[in-house]
Amino acid sequence: MAVDILKKRIDELVIKLNEASKAYYDDAEEIMSNYEFDELYDELLALEAETGYVRDDSPSINVGFETRSGLPKVTHEKKMLSLDKTKSREELKAWLGEHKGLLSWKLDGLTVVVTYNNGSLSQAVTRGNGVQGELITANALTIKNLPAKIEYQGRVVIRGEAVIKYSDFKKINDAIDDANAKYKNPRNLCSGSLRQLDPKVTAERNINFYAFSLNSAEGLDFHNSRSFGMEWLKKQGLDIVDYVTVDSSNIEREVENYELQVADFDIPSDGLVLAFEDLEYSSRLGETAKFPRDAIAFKWRDQQAETVLREIEWSPSRTGLLNPIAIFDSVELEGTTVSRASVHNISIMEDLELGIDDTIMVYKANMIIPQISDNLTRSGNIEIPENCPVCGGQTKIRDENGTRTLICTNPDCIAKHVKRFSLFVSRDAMNIEGLSEAGLLKFIGKGFLKSLPDIFDLAEHKEGIIVMEGYGEKSFANLTASIERSRNTTPARLLYSLGIPGIGVAISNTIAKACRNDWQRIQNLNEEDLKEIEGIGEVLSRDYIEYFANPDNSRMMDELLAKINLDESFKESGKALEGKTFVITGSLEHYAGRKELKTQIENEGGKVAGSVSKNTDYLITNDKTSGSSKNKAAQKLGVKIISEEEIREILGL
After folding, report:
1. Looking at residues 89-112, what average pLDDT do you find?
2. How many domains are contained in the chain?
3. CB-neighbour burial class of residue 522 (10 A; exposed 0-12, middle 13-18, buried 19+)
4. Does a structural domain hold residue 439?
5. Which of 283, 282, 160, 297 is nearest to 230 (CA)?
6. Percentage of residues in the chain having pLDDT higher than 90
7. Is 251 found in the same domain as 341?
8. Where are the beta strands (DSSP E) in 174-287?
């Protein structure tokens, strides 16, 4: 092949890889998979070696990416190089030779350099482009497991990785209504969170910091041992990345042990890091223009499998987006059976030229997420549905910045009202465990759920559910058991579960109490009745009456009441908290605000004050160890501190 053609290909690769890096580091977006990036990067390295043509902006000689933000820039004392990498266990063992090394997780977050002076955290800087990073000290101080002070008084410089755990990432995304606004992955969310101009935003993201290198510690003898530095960091109160000591006799076994942990590891990781234990030997090795010679990254080799595409399933979302899911003949990948993978959008589906009965290659990104890497036959015969598979409404292709997606245009599509189902199964409503919003959308997409009463018939769809991703025999058994328990409920819970505008937990309890738990009275309240109930005004009254007057809701209620057991027993109350004074502080889980809990306490004869005094009987808080002024006052005055759960028990809820 002519050199000019090869150089042209190098130009194309550099531009494409730099665009992907910019999107990843600066815009928190992924425009290509890790698999595709690695494939193109390896192709670039091979072409540069063959031609000797290396552009100044080539990612092969540049570290990181020049980020854009309003944060101050700081020049690193020592250039922060990236690591050379391998996917071969044999190469990893050969690299170590007869030396001892430390093998640890390669965490996938944001690398941060932290400096302590006189025992206090004085500076935190991102990796940035390897030469300059962004000053994020105020944000770093909000990281809960990163100590603001350590015992050692000399100057200490530490490198570590800031990450958001998968479990916390899921909680953050679950709280976002707009599916298009959900964050793509924990790494991007962590990067964006730490680079916020407002530390309050950072504090809300539950970021963790794991040290992976003690760079320097003024006056400290390192005993020529990398592991000594790691253990010393632990003694200073820092969390460190999990590591093991290895040599040629056990390195392959330890890599295997890490591999077995990947599927259940809660911290984002994209491989392992191997570094020499001997610090003097490490310092003699030096570095290349881009890589240090004393450490190397091991990336999991993506196990690929060939299979046949059988179907494209269009999965609904709350926003009306219909996401294409590839269904293919089952294959074994990384020890699990895989038969489906998200294609994300129409653009990716068209780029792969997917067609029914095509032969495709599938893999697990970072050994976790199934994806399609290639289509060997490329028939491109997929027909994009003109009607929504959930409601039958008309679909439309939307093009935003070159990305084509399919949406349902019907505003009444049941998938767009999944929040109704989500509220219905929530803890303060019917309290059905095992039904997340994502799970509800799956059941809606399969046609198992069309209205609220259908939840109590999910057991009839066992064969269809146990083969769905995220479900199995055990999950199904737990779900159906929870559904059965939820059939026994109270009028107040049922009323709240219906999602009538403005009718929250406290108002539901107030209405149920006013009607002495008689459901027929609750359902048939008129305007005059509602006016007599404290807390209900004209707007709430109108919405309440309209809900039960709606024929569709009336039919649904008849069907629902036939499937549950309402405990309408009623015990006179109103004096359970008589003479007791309460103060409420901090955030609440069961209530939209403190006013709702205040109403319940006052309904039982209690009084709610704004500050703690000698007349206070109870301080209600979900953080009994908080250093807040109210907590301190309660402790000083001997006021009993109770949690939200404890006051709910006292209220009989």
Report:
1. 93
2. 6
3. buried
4. yes
5. 160
6. 41
7. no
8. 208-217, 243-246, 269-276
What is the number of residues in the chain? Answer: 653
Is 575 among the domain residues? no
Domain co-membership, 276 together with 238: yes
228 and 104 together in one domain: yes
For residues 80 and 198, membership in a common domain is answered with yes
What is the pLDDT, as a whole number, of residue 27? 52
Q: Which amino acid appears at position 548 of this protein?
A: F
User: pLDDT digit string (tens) for 425-452?
Assistant: 988 899 998 888 878 888 998 889 999 9
Phi/psi-derived region of residue 401, left when phi > 0, alpha when psi is between -120 and 50, beta in every other case: left
Residue 160: burial class (beta carbons within 10 Å; 0-12, 13-18, 19+): buried
Distances (CA, A) of 356 to 264, 314, 359, 385, 464: 33, 14, 9, 14, 22
Residues tagged active-site: 106
> What is d(CA 258, CA 537) in angstroms, rounded to the nearest whole number?
60
Q: Do 316 and 389 meet the contact criterion of CB atoms below 8 Å apart?
A: yes
User: Which of 268, 298, 328 is at the close of a domain?
Assistant: 298
Q: With H, G, I as helix, E, B as strand and everything else as coil, classify residue 608.
A: strand
CATH number of the domain bearing residue 437: 1.10.150.20
Domain co-membership, 160 together with 207: yes
Q: Would strands 336-342 and 321-333 be described as parallel, antiparallel, or unpaired?
A: antiparallel
Q: What's the pTM?
A: 0.52
Residue 123, in any domain of the structure: yes
Q: Which of 278, 319, 540, 315 is nearest to 447 (CA)?
A: 315
The verdict on 323 and 384 lying in the same domain is: yes
pLDDT given for residue 182 in this prediction: 63
Residue identified by tokens 């592991």 is 227
- Domain containing 534 equals 489-566
